[in-house]
Design goal:
Structural class: alpha+beta
Number of strands: 5
Largest sheet: 5 strands, antiparallel
Mean pLDDT: 85
Order of helices and strands: EEEEEH
Helix content: 25-40%
Strand content: 35-45%
Number of helices: 1
Strand order of the largest sheet: 3-2-1-4-5
Low-confidence stretches: none
Length: 80
């Protein structure tokens, strides 16, 4: 199963690279597959690549769902 995660662009570091914030963890990703990205934008990230730009509302909804899933997982001790 593949998982792509919304992340906020914190810093542009090269023409096609950026530092993103994934729940407090900072990571460098490639922007080679997306255009017109600026600091503060949200993107979908998978295996080190930004795949698509998201609007802020959509990103917030998706991140809230991930947080809810994580909470449920914690309550059930990681059992599926």
């Amino acid at each position: 199963m593949c998982l792509a995660i919304p992340a906020r662009i914190e810093q542009l570091i090269a023409e096609d690279s950026a530092i993103i914030n994934l729940g407090g963890m900072r990571k460098e990703v490639s922007l080679a597959l997306v255009e017109n990205i600026a600091v503060g934008d949200y993107v979908i990230v998978h295996v080190g690549y930004a795949l698509q730009k998201l609007d802020q509302e959509e990103a917030a909804q998706t991140l809230a769902l991930f947080a809810e899933i994580s909470t449920m997982d914690d309550l059930h001790g990681g059992e599926a």
